[in-house]
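Our consortium's second objective concerns turning raw sequence data into structural hypotheses that experimental partners can test. To show how far this objective has progressed, the report includes one record in full. It was chosen at random from the queue rather than selected for favorable results. The single chain below, 462 residues long, was entered without modification.
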Amino acid sequence: MKKKSVKPQDPRSPFLLELVLSNRCNLACDYCSSSFLLKDGARKVLPFSTLRRAVELYAGCLEENGLAGEGLVSFTGNEPLLEFPLLRRVVRYIRRAYPAMRMRLDTNGTLLDAGKASFLSRNGVRIFVSLDGCRAAHDRHRTFPGGRGSFDAVVGALRALPEKLRSGGDLCVWSVVTPETIGLLPESLDFFRGLGIGTVVLGLETYARWDAAALRRLKDAFRCFRSRPLEALGGCPPPRFLFGLSGASDFRGMIGQAVSLALDGRFYPCDFALIPPGGRDLSVGDLESGIDMRKLDRMISGPMFRRIERGCERMSGLRAPVERYYRGLSLGLSGRELSRDLRDTSRVNLLFAREMSGYLGLLERGERLATAPGFGDLAHSPKYSADKTAAAFRLRAGGAPLSAQRAGLDLFLYAPGRTKSLTLGFPAGDAPARGSAADLCAYSLAKAGLLGLKLAVSLEPE
């Protein structure tokens, strides 16, 4: 095949390339969005040469836009570990040819073992294992052909992994919540807390309909998170619970910044576009011509996506309106039914924004603290300790690095005394300093919770 560089039509490039390795899967999940790939029953596996060519085109597209090293390749399936020899070959190729390229694997976890997980981790592939919660929640939808639940297989595989890999950043659990399982969420969260996984990402099943009763159950479930703010800040033992969120301009994020290589060797704007009635009408390139960014732009400005914007008041949140709308088209829903689905999506996203904005703010602060140079985790003890009781302390935020200011806070918090008062000052009108004060406030409250202190904190402009 003749290689040629395809220059994108605008300064954007897709940040994600999704590689559908095959149509094979060993499970029969009833909410699977890829089940249509199995309809003809014939095994289809993309050859290594096809996958390598797709990665080359993708990497060239990134490089021509000054984005070399910012790419992400996602391996999906149906179940990609069924094609592990092929997967291993592609991973080795990418790591050798594009050392900075990020990679991730989506797997149902039933075939994961220490050898496969170790190989993937060594090569910088982040592993996302589908596990929907406690046994009753997981086996409600995720079964083997014939109806046997897959909970034991997935949990057994995870517990057989080395503890360092299981609790580290290279592996996380992806948990799908449905209207049928939302009532089991408190039990599922307790189950996850005892599993030893570092991160659990929760998302809502894309195609389910959330009626008024289900929304009430969802609202009740959000209290499970709001009642434990220390988990958001990273001030508790793992896991850390995150959410699979759609962006504020969801259709632009999905259509304009992600492409999937399908089993027909063509590129599509993410995997939902592979579902009939889209097919080749939604193809945005092939292995000969590359990725057609101009066609991606035409899709974004096209009538279908304008209808989605008009019909969905709240685009961002736990539900992705584009996927929901396109699934409705594939099912042959009427215009009225499609509009109802968009309103349903908006209601879920509005509820999430109203009930969980504070918790999401804590997640953001916890992430900033965890990634601040030299700050470290929230739980470790200070290098030095005080002998005398310290009941009150004032610290001026801003200027010094957060790690240095943490040292002062820790000296105060670890000093004798169970009831304490902390004042965090910041220059009036200095927004970054005020942000630092708020971050240090969150840290202090999290640490006080870990130490069993009664702490009062005030923020004061100076």
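The partners drew two points from this record. Confidence is low (pLDDT under 50) at residues 1-13. The first strand starts at residue 16 and ends at 20. Both points have been shared with the crystallography group to help prioritize constructs.
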